[in-house]
Amino acid sequence: MPQLLLSQVRKSGHITYVASLDISSLGNYLVKAPKAHKSQINETLNNNKNIKYILTFNSVSSSFSKEAKMKKDTKKGGINITELKAGSGVYFFDKIKKENLLQKNSFGENFLILIPESKWKITREKKMIGKYLCYKAITEKTIEGRKGVKK
């Protein structure tokens, strides 16, 4: 008599990403910058710290957010360019509801923003990242602002 064995593969985990800013291209700019701006630029670059992000996922949902820190790594009043470029907020994805949400804090209050679904196109452009063969994917966003609509 044949037996049927069913098992459910549980896919879940945590992945840590590190965002860093490549400042190597700023060398020429710093040479040409006015002396009055150089100290301010150097102070801003010294405040530039790597930022860790955590992706937590299971088979139906995921969240992506900046790692919580006990204290600020920048000098008082300083700006961390990496954080500005890499972003903040908590991203959520629910596979069952097919929803992408962004939780943003503004004036001490949390807001949930529904992110419209993106239509992705996988191109033929490829690159090896570690031992993985990756393909470039592109999408188009329409943004409406003071200067009109941009794609």
TrEMBL record:
This is GLPGLI family protein. InterPro entries: GLPGLI. It comes from the Bacteria.
